Amino acid sequence: MKLLLHACCGPCSLEPARLLQAAGHTLSLAYMNANIHPAAEYAQRLATLRTWAASQNLAVVEGAYDVATWEARVGCFGAGPATRQQRCAACYRLRLEETARYAADHGFEGIATTLSVSPYQYTSAIEQELRRAARGVGIAAVFEDFRPFYPQATRASKQLGMYRQNYCGCRFSAAEAACERAQRAEERRAIKQAQHDANAGQRARAAAQLAAKKAEKQAYAAKQEAKHALKEKLRAEARGGSKLDRACGGSPGGDLASSPSHSPDQHEGKTPHENQ
After folding, report:
1. Residue pair 27/3 in contact by the 8 Å Cβ criterion
2. Predicted TM-score of the model (pTM)
3. How far is C-alpha 49 from the chain's CA centre?
């Protein structure tokens, strides 16, 4: 079947295009996304899609970037979770009706969409709006739930270095995505803080053990230093005593041992002849 595939962006087109071609369809891509905000984001997504499509020999047709019509038909629902599903359904309808009209006017036999690859979209509403748009112009609707292939599309787009957006496209989704990212960051911070607090006791015990080991090492070093100082003192005293001995000529009794001996026969003032 000659099929016009509505493409919301390059990364989301990878798996739907592959699977539809494998099923025997002849494809062209329709970039009809007046919802994308701001204009620079619209242009960047289109450029990414065109680059990849050229590598696959796929034609890309661009719809009108009619922001005023989108605001009138979709923006009127406003922001907030209460109206989000209605807002998204209205957005699907606007874009798929534009795709269906172009397909009918240019000889396509049916339309399909890449929107159903995202797990963040309302798949049932996408199918309903695709069939409604096709039926309105008398062509076939080829719907498939591509969500099981989302992880594969994510990996492939990263490997190809494709620009990957972090919100659906409209100004409402950009604000919602930013809020959700901030909330997730706060949750991660709270979890990290809770883990930090839970481990405070363990860190305190580890710090006390470290301090005790440090004090033990310091005490041992001080003890060793005192021992060394005492040894040095004793050595110094020993060296001083040896020097004193040498200065006195030997032991204290040396002088008496070397003096002349006294005979018991000798008396003061007498000679041996007088004793006789």
Report:
1. yes
2. 0.69
3. 28
